[in-house]
DNA sequence: GACCGGCATGTAATCGATTTCATCTGCCGT
DNA sequence: ACGGCAGATGAAATCGATTACATGCCGGTC
């Protein structure tokens, strides 16, 4: 509980000098600096971050609001975000919106109240994250993964359309023609992008997407299960179900297993967002993988640039298709697309 | 950027009155309160949490330091912790130690610097979390899941021994005799408890645990793979591998699959810490499940009690065995042990 | 009618740091 | 010899809230 005054007393200098010594100010003589530093660790003094923040108006803290911590994709994003932020000297406070806009708003308000220096958001819905009459001084903001159309803000995301097209080509190559999709909430850009890319890719291959092969989910396992059950009840069920996120794919697997059907023999499954667990599911899942670590790094980099007064540009990184066995055995000769990872 | 002075001016009162009105102080006349509240939302005023914390010496924030965010068990713990904390009016700052003691120390220091009101820790190793010369005023602390032997601190954890004994009985019942175990870092209490219980349970069943059937892991997938490979290289490999945490079980599955062996026909796998993904692995994994949500609730409850000056007791909650297919088909008649969940 | 108590409010101290401005001491140049 | 400047330090203002203490007023009591 030693304060700066105690250190000053112990070192026989004023609090101003202690502060200067600690902050590496130039005009402190080497001897006094030494004396101060000595007193500091003799007393085990640590500056009170709260007081410091009040005075300097900087908290050295970033806020990260994600849609769902339990989704491994976001867990990973959070983990790399913290890592990169720490490298820049920032802490991260994570807010879990649990896909609920009002919870997202709660976290954003709380974070702003705490005067974080910058905010990373992956919006739970299509509204501006600052809808609720926020006349707070908004710090720099960077959107990650998902974004909000009309909003002029730096966005760091992955380009999923190309990989989705590859996926469709892959499925077509395996002989599948009846492809269904489980979408996410239409308010999210990622859901829309993935479904649109899927629909267009089908068209390119001369297939089309009947209305009954489109089911709306909410990026949680439960909805994936329900939608898949509807697909299976169809007079002519699809040959492959494409889930636009990993948890819904899990739900799809559930539903299929509950009917006693086999993957991929009876029906194939593919997912957006690859995660380590997909290597171990039964069977291993074919999925589109985002470069999560790179996204996190780019996002933190951009945010820190903004905070420190430098400009920041939006970045789009490529996603890539990872073929496993959940849509049928790739025939010999099918290229496995481990393209070199390029950076945008 | 409106401050309390602006509100005071707008409402025609002093800052003291504004503060009192906002904090629900009794002696503010209804009319002035009304006037103040009006000004508040006309200006979109939100109190500066930093300034408030400095004055009141309370941040309404809890710190949560976990060993590994990417471990679904801890992710879930973090999620429920935040939920419960929010219900009590607290925010949570998560620190990910990544199983590295020095990173754990870093996070604890940072959290203390920020003057969190209380700290929840699941220690990465056996040392006191306050080893590094911390003469900071330590706020109330509660340990979750893992604990530190000599330390007199409230501990909220699950009792794994009973469930491990059930597991061994189950394996014995399936006819397995050669059982191996992948331990965690010996510095963690959870690793020791689980291995000890395992060893004792074997003894109870008249089996014993040869040294070469014990491999030390570090609670990460990679170590599970390496240890399992060693097991498989043995002249007489085990019939079942018990991983003392979920990620190492995943590694074990990897190693087994890499050899072209089948689970459970060639070798069985069981894990401590059940997670949703285990229903979808190939095959679904038999595991010991901890009541994570209850642990989180109890931990936050205890911590908040401590913070608010009430006493708090340590709590031990029961874990339970979830039998799936990874150790062989349970014969008809084997009880599936869905015992009613009791609370300690 | 003086006094007391409580209510409503204001003034100013306070939390623990940073930072502006002032002060003091040498030293240099002319 | 003296003005000026740079380096080292200290005193005090400051950040934006909360809160102890002071003040003024009103009503009730003896």
Features:
3 domains; Rossmann fold; transcription regulation (chains A, B); 344 residues; alpha/beta
What is the CATH domain class of the largest domain in chain A?
A: Alpha Beta
The best one-word shape of chain A is: elongated
Poorly predicted runs of chain A: 332-344
State the CATH architecture of the largest domain in chain A. Answer: 3-Layer(aba) Sandwich
Average pLDDT of chain A works out at: 91
N- and C-termini, Cα separation of chain A: 49 Å
Task: Report the order of strands and helices of chain A.
Answer: HHHHEHEHEEEHEHEHEHEEHEE
Q: Briefly note the structural class of the backbone of chain A.
A: alpha/beta
Helix content of chain A: 40-55%
Find the biggest chain interface.
Answer: A-B, 51 and 51 residues
| Oligomeric state | homodimer
Percentage of β-strand residues of chain A: 15-25%
What does this structure look like?
2 copies of one chain form a homodimer. Chain A is α/β, with parallel strands linked by helices. The first copy, chain A, folds into 3 domains: 44 residues, Orthogonal Bundle (434 Repressor (Amino-terminal Domain)); 128 residues, Rossmann fold; 130 residues, Rossmann fold (3-Layer(aba) Sandwich). The first copy, chain A, is built from 11 helices and 12 strands. In chain A, strands 2-1-3-4-5-11 form a 6-stranded parallel sheet. In chain A, helix 7 crosses helix 8 and helix 9 crosses helix 10. The longest helix of chain A is centred in the first third of the chain and has 16 residues. Chain A is elongated and about 85 Å long. Chain A starts with a helix and ends in a 22-residue tail after the last strand. In chain A, 48% of the residues are buried. The C terminus of chain A is likely disordered. The interface between A and B is large, with 51 and 51 residues.
